[in-house]
Amino acid sequence: MRNAPHRLLCRLDEYFHVSVVACPNDLSVVLAGAGATGNGDLGDVLLLSPDPDAEEPSGIAVLAEQSTAVDAVFSPDGARVTIGYADVGEGRGGPVTYGLDGAPRHGFAIGGEPHEDDGGGGEVDFVRLAQSGDGRLLVGGSPGAQAVAVADSATGRVLLTVPDGAGPVALDHTGRRLAYARPDGRVSVRETTSGAALSTWDTGLPAVHALAFSPDGTGLVAAGGDRPTACLFTADGDRTDVVVADATLTIDATLPWTAITTRACWTGRGPAVFTADDHLAVLFDATDGRVLWTGPEQTVASFTPDGRAFVASGSDGITAWSLDALL
Q1: Cα 178 to Cα 195: distance, rounded to the nearest angstrom
Q2: How many CA atoms does the CB half-sphere of 267 hold within 13 Å?
Q3: Which residues of 223-241 are buried (b: 16+ CB within 10 A; e: fewer)?
Q4: Cβ atoms < 10 Å from Cβ of 40
Q5: Distance of alpha carbon 167 from alpha carbon 164, whole angstroms
Q6: How does DSSP assign 118-133, residue by residue?
Q7: Residue 298: its pLDDT value, please?
Q8: Most CB contacts within 10 A, which of 36, 67, 99, 294?
Q9: Residue 95: partners with Cβ closer than 8 Å, 6 or more residues away
Q10: Please, which residues have CB within 8 angstroms of residue 138's CB and are 6 or more apart in sequence?
Q11: pLDDT tens digit string along 304-322?
């Protein structure tokens, strides 16, 4: 776990309350978002240059101010990054794609107004993101709008919008199939070209917090649950549930933090799931439940697009771990 190959990418000020972190495949850039502090500061979204020796990180660009970012994906070539925001009252819309110069390239909307039956009771809405393995398509899901939108990553043009989304989304490598979580804990799969419904599967979870397709598209992992669980689906819909092996590692899956920060990744060595709440964070092997890594409360993390690195916040700053070594 902690002795696996890793390196500190950059240090952050102790008052920088990280809400999202992401890196491209070569770890040449660090995206870090600071969440709302409750004193009127909604946070900033920064591109940073990795430098573990500097007391403060060297900034490349400020992508957004007075904005709370909760999800981010770099394109496979590392030339652009797409940000999903939380709407904490500033009227923030859908995902926005930026170049590494900090300039916005385009954005796209997800659905319409927040759904009147979303049960939010004034809760914060947010956007979850994914992209196809080839980087041609982006997808965003919003629990507030209860919708999912698939867009061309180069232009932001929306190609498909479907209802009944709960946030978490995934695209297969070619972008031909879309998977999305539904509000009732089920997962649906559709064709992206026609929008045709292919399957809807029951996960047995009250809510799904993350999704990922296998590299060959024949498998899908859905993650959630107080006892962190990965539901592995075959193309035929056969389900295998994998629960984190350490029974003492429980998560409050009802927390917004858990819904926003849970991530899933499926590499050539298998699937992995990261989840966190107000007390702890855990990364586990989704094939056998083996604990790969643990962290403190309110840790945020992500996987590089190629699934080779696990990037996480911590007391020292932002650190990248070799996922192959952890698995």
Answers
A1: 9
A2: 18
A3: bbbeebbbbbbeeeeeeee
A4: 7
A5: 9
A6: S--TTPPEE-EEEE-T
A7: 85
A8: 67
A9: 82, 83, 84, 85, 107, 108, 110, 127, 129, 138, 140
A10: 73, 82, 95, 97, 108, 129, 130, 131, 150, 151, 152, 153
A11: 999 999 999 998 899 999 9
Largest separation between any pair of C-alpha atoms in the chain: 52
Place of tokens 């993390």: 301
d(CA 146, CA 167): 7
Q: What is the pLDDT of residues 135-169, one digit of tens each?
A: 999 999 999 999 999 999 999 999 999 999 999 99
Q: How far apart are the first and last CA of the chain?
A: 9
Structure tokens of 204?
Answer: 């047995």
Supply the DSSP string of 254-305, one letter for each residue. Answer: TSHHHHHH-EEEEETTEEEEEEE-SSEEEEEETTT--EEEEEETT--EEE-T
CA distance 233 to 165: 19
- Quick one: tokens of 87? 């709407």
Q: Which amino acid is at 186?
A: R
Q: What does the DSSP assignment read for 200-261?
A: EEE-SSS---EEEE-TTSSEEEEEETTTTEEEEEETT--EEEEE-S-TT----TTSHHHHHH
Tell which CATH architecture fits domain 6-326.
7 Propeller (2.130)
Distances (CA, A) of 103 to 25, 46, 49: 21, 12, 17
Q: 312 and 266 in contact (C-beta within 8 Å)?
A: no
Model pTM score: 0.93
Is residue 45 within 8 A of residue 67, CB to CB? The reply is yes
Residue 242's identity, in one-letter code, is V
